Structures are given as C-alpha cells and as structure tokens.
C-alpha cells in the first residue's frame, strides 16, 4: 500500500504514536524474556514487525517485505530504542 502524493505524510510524532500503539497491541504479547533488549522494527501501516538483536537487520527484514514502509523502532523491555544523557557514565582520563 504505497502512499499517494495527496495522502497525509505522518510527522515523527504520528509515527511514534502509531508505532507505540502497535507495539503494545500486537508485539508485546508475542515477545518473551529471551527477547529482552532486542530491537523491534514495526511497519506503521501494516503492523508487520521483526525482532532482532541488530537494529539494522530488523529494519532490513521489514523493508524486504515492503520497501516503502515507514518503520518505528523500539526495544523489548524499554520505552526507547536508544538512550542518551543522564545515567550513562563517561570515564574521564
């Protein structure tokens, strides 16, 4: 299902909300403790998803199915795929 030029192009916020909702409804019930920390790539239009320890592999598998997919990425057991800032120690030499 390709987007026509006249269709609404989702904002980053739209993609995030849709991706989070799909994760909660369709992905979370199907992952196990063995998947904790792995990346989840979700096609926000179809709900198709892939789980992998390598973020790029998960995205590639989603896009192999549908090259025009708008992909939301998160991690099993976390609200974010990546985290920066507080809580990450940096050794000062």
Overview in brief:
Helix content is 29%, strand content 15%.
Structure description:
The chain has a domain at about 10-75. Helices cover about 30% and strands about 15% of the residues. It is built from two helices and three strands, in the order H-E-E-H-E. Strand 1 and strand 2 (about 50) form a beta hairpin. The chain is globular, with a radius of gyration of 15 Å.
Structure keywords:
single chain, 93 residues, alpha+beta, globular, disordered C terminus
Q: What is the CA-atom radius of gyration, in angstroms?
A: 15 Å
**Which percent band covers the strand fraction?**
15-25%
The level of helicity is: 25-40%
Number of strands: 3
Structural class: alpha+beta
Mean pLDDT: 86
Strand order of the largest sheet: 2-1-3
Along the chain, the helix and strand elements come as HEEHE
- Largest sheet descriptor: 3 strands, antiparallel
Oligomer type: single chain
End-to-end C-alpha gap: 53 Å
Number of helical stretches of at least 4 residues = 2
Shape: globular
* Poorly predicted segments: 89-93
Secondary-structure topology with pairs:
Elements: H1 12-27, E1 39-43, E2 49-52, H2 55-65, E3 71-75
Antiparallel strand pairs: 1-2, 1-3
């Amino acid at each position: 299902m390709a987007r026509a030029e006249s269709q609404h192009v989702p904002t980053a916020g739209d993609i995030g909300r849709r991706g989070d909702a799909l994760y909660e409804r369709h992905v979370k019930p199907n992952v196990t403790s063995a998947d904790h920390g792995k990346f989840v790539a979700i096609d926000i239009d179809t709900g198709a998803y892939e789980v992998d320890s390598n973020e790029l592999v998960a995205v590639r598998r989603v896009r192999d199915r549908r090259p025009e997919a708008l992909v939301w990425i998160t991690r099993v057991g976390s609200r974010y795929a990546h985290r920066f800032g507080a809580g990450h120690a940096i050794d000062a030499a």
